[in-house]
């Protein structure tokens, strides 16, 4: 299909690290069609000899692939103890085993961020096992099928809003009391470039990410004087398995999409993970209620 009739552009491709609900065609894309024109994914996380996060407890949602998985691996390399969730149990156990095989400490728990009991259980299990939660990365999220507002179904709208916005709310609802009790903590929410600007055909996703940014600001103000730092990050197009499937499905490539971004390339998951590590470290002590642009300059245009 000609590039001009089937583009991946600003309104189509604000994908971050989630999955696209309803786009079943992605599941049939062959591995060859998913080939990346950049270098294959490799870990670029630099770890210190002592481990910046030695014995810190990290709770992360949606870490069975993409940004979440890369961040879990990055923290484990820095000797953090990682407790993570995701709905895909087999994949979750696979990721956990892979991290442990390289010397990392991690446990996987199946949990659906849309379910309040699941989120309560996720936090309670983490605390029961490890005693505290030093850092929480609320990353889980999904995308919806591109449709105009009038074409969106209520079911599709609710699924995206409940997963992304309500899931982030429920995560913080149960994480914050733990951090209040222990006297400190760091929370980072995964927002999106589409939480800053509107993009046609992705109303549920865009609205949910705007909501996450608002939740982040409100919570940050409420707990700033309680030694809890709450911020968010906003990725654009990131090289995840979901993005590769999307590119193949829309018959485009990394180079075409990269032209939308000032850095003229697609951001790698390890780059996002590094930002989360930095925000979680002892360095940015006065950064509170801020959203970090990790798009590669898109939001500066």
Structural domain tally: 1
Query: Rg, please?
Result: 18 Å
Give unreliable regions as ranges. 1-43
Mean pLDDT: 85
Q: What's the number of extended β-strand segments?
A: 11
Record the SSE blueprint.
Elements lengths: L18 E2 L36 E5 L4 H12 L3 E6 L2 H13 L3 E6 L5 H15 L4 E4 L3 E2 L10 H29 L2 E6 L12 H21 L4 E8 L2 E2 L1 H9 L4 H5 L8 E2 H12 L10 E4 L7
Parallel strand pairs: 1-6, 2-3, 2-5, 3-4, 5-7, 7-8, 8-11, 9-10
Helix pairs in contact: 1-8, 3-4, 4-5
Can you characterise this structure?
The structure is a single chain. The chain has eight helices and eleven strands. Helices cover 39% and strands 16% of the residues. Helix 1 packs across helix 8 and helix 4 packs parallel to helix 5. The chain has one domain: Rossmann fold (3-Layer(aba) Sandwich). The chain has 301 residues and is α/β, with parallel strands linked by helices.
Descriptive terms for the model:
single chain, 301 residues, alpha/beta, Rossmann fold, 7-stranded parallel sheet, 8 helices
Summarize the structure.
This protein has helices spanning 66-77, 89-101, 116-130, 154-182, 203-223, 241-249, 254-258, 269-280; strands spanning 19-20, 57-61, 81-86, 105-110, 135-138, 142-143, 185-190, 228-235, 238-239, 267-268, 291-294. With 301 residues, it is an alpha/beta fold. α1 crosses α8 and α4 runs parallel beside α5 (203-223).
